[in-house]
Amino acid sequence: MLATEEISTTAYEINEKIVQKRSNLPISSWYLTPPIMLFSSWFILNFDYYALKDPILVWKDLLAWTSYVLGHITVPILTSVWLYIFHEPGAVKSYGFALGFQNICGVLTHLLFPCAPPWFIHMYGEDKVANYDMKGYAAGLTRVDIHLGTHLNSKGFHASPIVFGAIPSLHSAMAVITLYFITYFARYRIIKVLSFLFVVLQWWATIYLDHHWRLDLFIGLIYATVWFSIIKWFLLNKYDENFIKARLNYNFKNGSTMGMRVFRNTNLQWFFDPMA
């Protein structure tokens, strides 16, 4: 346990840093990530397509599966835990709302504006009349089933109720909105860079596996950008302001993270402090 005087001194020093920063934004926030991604996406998508799509190799199949399937499931969960433990009250709620609303809008778009994925055109040709009696297809993921000796991917996509849900790519939207939250909150540059590389990897995987066109991925980026902007305007700005006010008023309950509360009055408290 730390002495009361030591705790007070550290809290005062951190508050002085907050005052000097003169902003409610998290420390080291890359708040310009959304416009940068919008302007750079054309180059990234074309690099993924022209430089990395071919040839088809076993290690590329497994890497694409790891990102497209495992990453799509685990990255949002890990990001939510990270936001909850290390960042201000309301951060994980904002991330959840952003993911939820963009996914609802994405599924509604799939139903109202069905679009065929690349594998459909490559399998049936451009003149094939599409209908929902057709079964889904795992496309490049069928190769992974062969490598791993399973039928998990093939059976999963075969049972999918939305066969023509190419636009928007929710894999793209999830990766991009996760990037926005990580670059907004993370203090360390390496975490921000890794989240950007995950977007690049996820875009490549969807193209390589024949699941999405580049346009699908770009529109997924648009959905993520719109919903991040809305959530930031209506929720994040308020949470940022309340968190800073609580810190400056030495209100520990509202000015601390979950990790800080668990390890209160120990050296580990400052490890979980995003302002330290």
TrEMBL record:
One Pfam family matching this protein: PAP2_3
Membrane topology of the entry: Multi-pass membrane protein
GO biological process: mannosyl diphosphorylinositol ceramide metabolic process; sphingolipid biosynthetic process
CDD domains: PAP2_Aur1_like
Superkingdom: Eukaryota
Record domain Inositolphosphotransferase Aur1/Ipt1: where: 61-228
Subcellular location: Membrane
Major location category of this protein: membrane
GO cellular component: inositol phosphoceramide synthase complex; membrane
This protein's UniProt keywords: Membrane, Transmembrane, Transmembrane helix
InterPro entries in UniProt: Aur1/Ipt1, IPC_Synthase-Related
Ranges that cross the membrane: 27-45, 65-85, 97-121, 162-183, 190-209, 215-235
Name this polypeptide is given: Inositolphosphotransferase Aur1/Ipt1 domain-containing protein
Organism: Candida verbasci
